[in-house]
Amino acid sequence: MLILTCPHCGIQAEETELHNGGEAHLKRVGPDGSDEEFEGYMFARRNPRGVHLERWRHAYGCGKWFIAARCTVTLQVFGTYAAQTTTPPDHIVQAVRAARPDWNPTEEGASE
Ligand SMILES: [Zn+2]
Asked: Is residue 108 part of a domain?
């Protein structure tokens, strides 16, 4: 079972208390974007085998959104942080790199 700690209220919540919001740090495409850019923003999502940054909402708690860094293979959670943050905090990047030295958080959040 997946258990995540909400960074807003500090409660450890089971997966059933949360709502998954998909890939984190997507770049929105405005009215100046091309059809291909908008299609990519709307439909193209990463499905990595390894560390993934994903949005979660503490649906049966404080109701706020946050981002979790977890491995999709082992379900190891490296940390959570507020969704308003545009990049993973240093302590999470260091925790991930301790397990996966080649992990690059800037590639993870990029949306093409
Ligand atoms: Zn919460």
From this structure: no
Using a 10 angstrom Cβ sphere, with 0-12 exposed, 13-18 middle and 19 or more buried, the burial of residue 30 is: exposed
CATH code: domain of residue 82: 3.30.2270.10
Number of domains in the chain: 1
Distance of CA 79 from the midpoint of ligand 1 (Å): 14
Could you tell me the distance, in angstroms and rounded to a whole number, from the CA of residue 57 to the centre of ligand 1? 8
CA of residue 75 to ligand 1 center, whole Å: 20
Q: Which residue has the tokens 């977890």?
A: 70
- 75, amino acid identity: L
Q: pLDDT grade, residue 102 (50/70/90)? A: confident
Q: What are 4-19's pLDDT values in tens digits?
A: 999 999 999 999 999 9
Structural domain includes residue 106: no
